[in-house]
Amino acid sequence: xxxxxxxxxxxxxxxxxxxPAVVGxxxxxxxxxxxxxxxxxxxxxYVVIADGATTDLRRFAGHRTAELDLVIxxxxxxxxxxxxxxxxxxxxxxxxxxDRLGGEVARIVAAKARLDADEASRAxxxxxxxxxxxxxxxxxxDRDGHAxxxxxxxxxxxxxxxxxxxxxxxxxxxxxxxxxxxxxxYPLPGWDTRVLLDAADAVSATGDVSAQRELFAxxxxxxxxxxxxxxxxAWGEDLALMRPRxx
Length: 247
Hints:
4-stranded mixed sheet
């Protein structure tokens, strides 16, 4: 391909599919999220090469244009991508374009969408404590007249809250861009999607203490039900500042 003829997605897929060294093609990003494509959307494609295989396609490693971004990895490397890491959600909702391994590439992708029980439990405890910490700081700063600090801590708490809620459901947190897309199609158990999104919006924008406390009450119930009461109990008397008044 020349600079006058940039590599197009469809053309590359045709080339890759004809190469026996390629065992999988996996499309991620907005093109893998129905309804999220815009005029600016490129094609983000993983090219999975059989372990130990040689291929001329490696000359495209690092290829990145407004049309096509390529990541070329071995099968072994692909298994490890995002486990854990920021790329995990991207692959959790990816589309399988080619799978020459009888469904193995699809199984690898599916595994990235589900945290195992131990991983989820560890993550839940960590995110619960981080959420409580930011919430506590926000409420305390509001009480003490530090309005900006209170809002910033409230905004931080929302990020930790989302990590926590998805970990409770043994799922990687989606990127903010795909949060609404994800929740509309795959709601979190026990949460009304619109109520949760509206609460996250309000807390992030205003740091409203009453909204934060009401949200915390629901989170506390869910966390204790899931067996993480000890994380909350470690906060001792400070829990009273986080809970709704009169609770």
